[in-house]
Design brief:
By secondary structure, the protein is an alpha/beta fold. It contains 15 helices and 22 strands. Helix content is 35%, strand content 23%. Strand 1 and strand 2 form a beta hairpin. The C terminus is likely disordered.
């Protein structure tokens, strides 16, 4: 059997899947990555461990799957996480500074105070926020000893470097678009942005289409040397592509550590209302654009709350939450500030409106409901900006398999969601792009027709106004805490 080996390198796990010529997953492997929090608001990973986890996931996938001929590799990856390495030796020169990390918050505030916000937003579609890599690249450079030959990159470029034995320094346009150093309309690295952030543009990788020749494997256990890497794309973009969301207005919500809400656009639209504009993917030199809202903490709050309540696992938390009626206390999961559409680095996690009658089930429900509330706010911002109708809305990622959680989302946004049976939408999207490179599928119409098992969850009536009142009250308390602490 011929197959594409798709790597999905995420924040908490590295996954590998085998995708057949018919577009079906025939093998899986998953290995945890590990993550550390050296200071409050700091989040990082070990780049060597990250690559090792990819190799282990590939080994598990190939061992568990059928006997296949791997025609090509494809990569989907966590975005906005960046690292640096030595161009000559390949040695890591710093940690992977995670997309969740807030260590450069003050640097972003300084850039805003210097008047750079509007220009950065106009060129990149992204706000000046520590989630994005521009300031993180500068932080890494400031800590690298002089005299080293430096390469800077997003996770796709680090993986390609490792997979090719250091022979290629490349990334795809979707990952470049999240770097805050890439001019969206010109589709190239920007010297102007490099000057703003203090980053030398020649240190960055060459930007390729999402479906392209990224090099050949060298020294990857279980995979013959010379196997082509034919696709790379950010994981949220890959999920959008994997669902076949090719029509303007179609979108998806990826639920993971954080969450990404993305809808396809007919053309470039400047961002406002707290959502960003990004490159969804680029084919044959032509970018497809999308709106995106990045939620910093989504499912990451679930195991935390399960531990607080003394529950065995997340499944037990969700079961407990489902036993409570909606309308209990409010909860804002601002453990590392808030992302879209609020973009508030000083917001802090909190519960609100708790009294002696509050139950464990209501506490659990307030945490699970916070996922739906954040999605609601991003979708509302997108609707306000686009003026168009929301099309098919797909959901993916581990939490998307919970009917209860996805019903809460559908109820709040008053729109059907399409729950997909296979949660590996990102890996599938990357594999489909590689298949286009190989000629397994001739065009997007063929990709759209590949089999996908799913079912639709229709919204049910709830007292949305009352629920949103509680949520907005909690939000106001979360975002005003820092101001009050400073006595202002």
């Amino acid at each position: 059997m011929r197959a594409i080996l798709a790597i999905d390198q995420g924040t908490t796990n590295s996954k590998a899947v085998l995708v057949s010529e018919t577009g079906e997953i025939v093998g899986r492997g998953s290995v945890p990555v590990g993550i550390s929090y050296p200071k409050a608001g700091w989040v990082e990973q070990d780049p060597r461990r990250l690559y090792a986890s990819v190799c282990e996931a590939i080994d598990a996938c190939l061992t568990a799957g059928p006997d296949v001929t791997v025609e090509a590799l494809a990569i989907s990856n966590q975005r906005e996480s960046v690292t640096a390495w030595d161009a000559e030796t390949g040695d890591a020169l710093g940690p992977v500074v995670s997309w969740q990390c807030r260590r450069t918050a003050r640097d972003c505030e300084r850039l805003i105070a210097e008047g750079h916000l509007d220009r950065v937003l106009a060129l990149t579609g992204l706000p000046l926020d520590p989630m994005f890599p521009g300031s993180k690249f500068r932080w890494l450079l400031d800590r690298i000893p002089k005299g080293r030959s430096v390469r800077l990159g997003t996770i796709d470029s680090w993986l390609v470097h490792c997979l090719t034995g250091g022979r290629r320094h490349v990334c795809d346009a979707s990952n470049a678009a999240r770097s805050q150093l890439f001019d969206l309309q010109e589709q190239r690295w920007s010297e102007e942005l490099g000057e703003i952030f203090g980053v030398d543009i020649p240190l960055l990788p060459e930007v390729l289409d999402s479906s392209a020749d990224f090099g050949r494997t060298q020294g990857l256990p279980g995979v013959p040397d010379g196997t082509p890497i034919m696709a790379a794309i950010g994981d949220s973009h890959a999920a959008l592509f994997g669902h076949g969301a090719f029509q303007p207005g179609d979108g998806k919500v990826t639920f993971g550590t954080g969450s990404s809400v993305m809808t396809t656009l007919p053309r470039f639209v400047p961002p406002r209302n707290g959502v960003t504009t990004t490159v969804a993917w680029r084919l044959n030199g032509m970018p497809t654009f999308a709106f995106e809202g990045n939620i910093l903490v989504c499912a990451a709050s679930l195991p935390w709350m399960a531990g607080i309540l003394g529950l065995s696992d997340v499944a037990a938390l969700v079961e407990l939450a489902a036993s409570a009626e909606p309308g209990g206390p409010g909860f804002v999961p601002a453990f590392v500030g808030l992302g879209a559409p609020y973009w508030n680095s000083d917001a802090r996690a909190l519960f609100s409106q708790i009294d002696f009658n509050t139950t464990r089930a209501q506490m659990a429900r307030s945490v699970t409901d916070s996922i739906a509330f954040q999605v609601h706010d991003v979708i509302a911002a997108m609707r306000a900006q686009s003026g168009g109708e929301l099309g098919a809305l797909y959901v993916d990622g581990g939490p998307s398999q919970s009917r209860f959680l996805m019903q809460c989302v559908s109820n709040l946004i008053k729109h059907p969601v399409i729950q997909c049976e296979a949660p590996e939408a990102s890996a599938l999207g990357a594999a489909y792009l590689a298949g286009l490179s190989l000629g397994l599928w001739s065009d997007l119409d063929m990709v759209a027709k590949l089999p996908r098992k799913s079912h639709v969850i229709e919204p049910q009536p709830v007292d949305r106004a009352a629920l949103l009142d509680t949520w907005n009250d909690a939000l106001a308390r979360s975002t005003s805490r820092q101001t009050k602490a400073n006595g202002e």
